[in-house]
């Protein structure tokens, strides 16, 4: 039986991550390069890059690099201090910071210089948030959902930004607290629409398929969210990290005629394609 | 029976109004002057100014003035177009716009020039709001409490200001709607603390008195607000324009031992004093 396979629009890498991974991939395989921390939260991608001579290095080991070694800044971006440090070491810096994140750095830096306090809605340990905080002398107030703000002294002149992958719900929770006291509030909603658009397309697709496959890391929050959304609309939804985890037993079920696929923000196209290929191959063998 | 009379702190004229009225009052009595519209919403003050040769003139009658006639801009301020018109007529302009309102004009003009849409939280017919709107080409969205915004298309890049006499509650209502959709929100809470402080002191006082007297124009929005606040805490609250409207029948009620007084932003001290004097005189006559 021939089944229809539909891949949801905007599955997998967002623009910023694709740009960073392409930067690390599209090079002479002999040339050694480094990324400052793993380029994305996906072991398959990191292993594949290692095979082509791209290695992740932590900031604490930066002294082991030689002058003119190439270091790639991943899409999360880094603080001004880190950028200054890399420059001072005369490294060859390839800045693959997502342009949307660079825009946050710029705004935070400008408003901080204008005397605004900075507040970041996000996870204080996330590299993107750590990087943003580094553009306002690490003086930002950081909150996930504002629950820790109720008793805090909130500056009267405040610029608020968000981690690009933050939930709209948390943004609104924080803002609803700030509007009670702020005299001068500049609220820049820097949540990236890529996540929202990916979720929306997955939702639409999951409503019209007989089986939905979500590909992504089991610890990735955006993948888990995609799985939850699809599960709500299609009871028959699977979460897998790659094609090796896909059991093809479902092919025995003749009720499954349309198969939908979506993938989390850290899943490269080649992993999506491997899943599609496995299904097609199994069908041929039927 | 001797009653205690307590005047709430910060009753009456705010800084901006006092400044405008003083500007119109402190002059040679022979010299004729004009104010563009009544200088404040208080007939007693307007009559008193007329006695000293200061007359209110509407914009539509501006052609009846001669070159070099003096015209006072009241604390509410005016639009850029009106200011340009007065200048083009070579009038002697005395600008008594409240400096806090001038600051709103400046911010609105700047942000509008930077491509922001402007939203004003206030009463669209209030001269202050009409004036502010005139600093962004009369293109502002104007809302009282946001109830008309739920279905409106809200611009993504928005600068929000408030009428200086607006309620904090309405400000929060409007902002809680805007934070749902705005991408870039500059929220300048331009509610003047004079109003808040006056309201707070009136509220505190109204909780501990047996009778509360609010003095001010019945069409004045800030006086009406004061009246509402006091009425919530003291069922026995009166709104009067001046001492002539005060019936002293309440003196027969021996339950009234403490009398509180507050006054709207357009009530001069001499009117407050006349009310106090009337009560004291009546008590003496008992």
UniProtKB/TrEMBL annotation, chains A, B:
Cofactor remark: Binds 1 [4Fe-4S] cluster per subunit.
Positions bound to (2E)-4-hydroxy-3-methylbut-2-enyl diphosphate: 41, 76, 126, 164, 220-222, 266
InterPro entries per the UniProt record, alphabetical: LytB/IspH
Pfam families per UniProt: LYTB
Keyword 4Fe-4S in record: yes
Binding site for isopentenyl diphosphate: 41, 76, 126, 220-222, 266
PANTHER family: 4-HYDROXY-3-METHYLBUT-2-ENYL DIPHOSPHATE REDUCTASE
Name this polypeptide is given: 4-hydroxy-3-methylbut-2-enyl diphosphate reductase
Source organism of the structure: Clostridium cellulovorans (strain ATCC 35296 / DSM 3052 / OCM 3 / 743B)
Lineage: Bacteria, Bacillati, Bacillota, Clostridia, Eubacteriales
